[in-house]
Structure formats: structure tokens, C-alpha cells
Amino acid sequence: MDMVLVNLIDGLVTGLLLFMLSSGLTLIFSMMGVLNFAHASFYMLGAYFAYQISTYVGFWPGLFIAPVLVGLIGAMIERYGLRRVHQYGHVPELIFTFGLALLMEEVVQFFWGKNQLPYESPKILDFTLFSIAGNAIPAYKMFIIFAAMGIFLALLYVLTKTRIGLIIQAALRHPRTVEALGHNVPFVFMGVFGVGTGLAGLAGVIAGPELGTFPGMAALLGSIVFVTIVIGGLGSLWGALLASLLIGWITTFAVAYNVAFADILEALGLSRPADLASSAWRDLWTLTMPQIGPILPYLLMIIVLVFRPYGLFGKRDL
To answer: Can you list the alpha helix ranges (DSSP code H) found in the chain?
Structure first.
């Protein structure tokens, strides 16, 4: 039971970090229909900006300045780059954002090198908050949990209780009607893209000390972000949160428990074949949960799409 509690906390931290990264993309993807392959690169950019700022003025100013810088860069990219290729369809968008991701990675390596940076959590949070059966739970993990929940509540309030949130929600589903009512929909799109990339940058600022700040951090989470918004459903903040938590807990528990895949198959009523000469059968029956853990989110996505193509909380097709 103690290890279950530890894994629940670790999975919660992982899931909430994933939520901060995916919450902006779920609005961008659902509103603009843009498959932004560079979204995780803004997450990486936020971590690097925060590290550089922290070397001069400390962690806390970087926590606020870095996401704003990343958001401004994202807004400018949408206004002067992505908007120009958006009218030509998804293929030019894919090429543009994929090239943008490669460019950002090269820029990061040019200025900061290829090694992991010593980006650390603030000293004020560098202590053990409590322990569970000898497993220390750092205060910084609790800070991540409260920060992510604060972001969720703030986004939920803005999207459901404010005028700008109602305009965004309306532009998401009926952009031409909103434009006919006198609202500048392209400006709304630019703002949403900037806020979405800023949220990705904020996730990088917070995740950098926990998961490491290195050039490959964008590739590490790039694909899983799209899995999250597909599972949660387009345009649904609740869906992004639930999907992120599910993925966080699934991957954490899969790595923590070294259960053989053969035991799972036998529990489902599949008996072990007498002849394991076939390499495919032999590999299948010798797999363990830590080995198949990385593919579990993708299996979950397939199951969700089979039974609910809209996603868990989505209101329209992908």
C-alpha cells in the first residue's frame, strides 16, 4: 500500500506536467485544426529560457518571464509564418511545424550545447516534505501539483466565466458566425496560439528541474501530447486533464511493477503454448510490464477511438 501511494503521487506529478503541456495544444488543435508538431519544442524553449534567466535573477522571475517570452514567440510565428501556410491545407502545416521543431532544436544546441543543463529547483523547495515507507516526497513535487491545478482552475474560469472565454469557445465551433458578429477571429487565433505555446513554455519551466533540461526533451514528449488530446477529446479541458492523469498513472505503475506479460495473459484465460519455438510467441510471453509501459498510452488511445471516436469528453470528430 505504501508503494501504491508513492506511485499515485509520482503518476499525479507526471500527469499534471503532461496536462500543462497538452492544455494549450488541445485548444490550438481543436480551434485552428493545426497539427503543431513544434508544440513540444516550445516546452523545451521554456525550460532553456528559464534556465538562462535563473542564472541571473533566480528561479522565480524565470517562472513568469520565460512563458511570456515563449508565448510572444509563438504568437509571432502564427502571425507571420503559420497563418501564411494554413490556407494551403494540412500538408504545408505539417512541413512547416516539423521544420520549425528541427530549427528550434538546432538553435538550442547552438546556444546551449548538447549536454544536459544544471537547471535545478529553487532552494526554498529543495527539501523533503514527507516520507512514505522511506520514500522521500520532495516539496517541489507538491509545488508542481498545486501549480498545475491552479493553471487548470484559471483556464476553466477564463473559458467558462469570462467574455473572452466565451468568444474563444464560440470561435472554436462557429468561427464564421463569430467573425460576422464583428470579432477579429484571426487575432483570437493568434492569441490562443500564443497562450497555448506559453502554457507549453510554463510546463518546460516547471518540468525542467524535475525531468531534466536537454535538447531531446521535446522529442521525449512530442508524440504523447497528441495521444493525450485525442483521448481527452478536442476542445475539452476536462478531457485533457483526465487523459493526462490516466497516462501518468498507467506509465508510472507499469514501470514500478515488474509483472510478466505471461501472467496477465494467463489471468485472461490464455494458456501458455506448449511449443514456444516461434520467436514471436516467445517474445510475447517473455515481455514484462516495464517493457510494454511506453506503448500503453497508444493502446489506450486505440481503445478509446474504437468505442468513442470523439474522445472521452469531445463533442466533435477528430
So the answer is: 2-32, 39-57, 59-77, 83-86, 90-112, 139-161, 163-173, 175-180, 185-211, 217-232, 237-256, 261-267, 279-286, 289-292, 296-307
C-alpha cell of 184?
477579429
- In a 10 Å sphere around its CB, with 0-12 CB exposed, 13-18 middle and 19+ buried, how is residue 168 labelled? buried
Q: Is the pTM of this model over 0.90?
A: no
Residue type, 234: L
Q: Give the pLDDT band of residue 318 (cuts 50, 70, 90).
A: very low
Write the CATH number of the domain with boundaries 2-256. Answer: 1.10.3470
DSSP letter, residue 214: -
**Residue written as cell 508510472?**
252
| CB contact at 8 A, 21 and 248 | no
Q: Strand, helix or coil at 276?
A: coil
Span 258-317, pLDDT tens digits = 777 666 666 766 666 555 555 555 666 677 777 777 888 999 999 998 988 888 887 655
- Rounded percentage of the chain residues whose pLDDT exceeds 70: 88
Q: How far apart are CA 221 and CA 40, in angstroms?
A: 7
Q: Cα–Cα distance between 210 and 13 in angstroms, integer?
A: 10
What is residue 93's predicted lDDT score, i.e. its pLDDT? 85
Predicted confidence at residue 274, as pLDDT, reads 57
The arithmetic mean of pLDDT across residues 177-205, rounded, is 86
| Listed residue (67, 33, 54, 105) closest to 200, CA to CA | 67
DSSP, collapsed to helix, strand or coil, labels residue 88 as coil
Ranges of H-type helices in 113-236 = 139-161, 163-173, 175-180, 185-211, 217-232
| Nearest of 58, 85, 208 to residue 144 by alpha carbon | 208
**Domain range summary for the chain, segments of one domain joined by +:** 2-256
